[in-house]
Write a structure and sequence with these properties.
Layout (H helix, E strand, L loop, with lengths): L2 E3 L1 H14 L4 E9 L3 E9 L6 E6 L2 E6 L3 H4 L2 E7 L5 E6 L3 E4 L6 E3 L2
Parallel strand pairs: 1-6, 2-5
Antiparallel strand pairs: 2-3, 4-5, 6-7, 8-9
Length: 110
Amino acid sequence: MAIQLTESAVRHVQSMLDKRSAGIGLRLGTRKSGCSGYAYVVEYADYITDEDTVFDFSGVKILVDAGSLPHLDGITIDYVRTSILNSGFEFINPNVTDSCGCGESIAFRE
């Protein structure tokens, strides 16, 4: 199983954690949602559970629960700034087969 974080994403996550003054990284997962079936979930991670797979990028940890791992295998997470007012994570996931028109949910190969 593999997850990649670009240098831009690593810098952004580290900056977020520094401002928060707590946490060990981000928890990345999927949950059932929307018309296409799933949505990404990104939250601060303050601890590691027995169910987590941990990926380390220059000290920034990404934790993924066992249920989400098959959906996220091979994903690349980038942090992009498209304008002064727009920036955020971009998920480049080879497992996504479809997404809804509004972009809020995605479908995976099952």
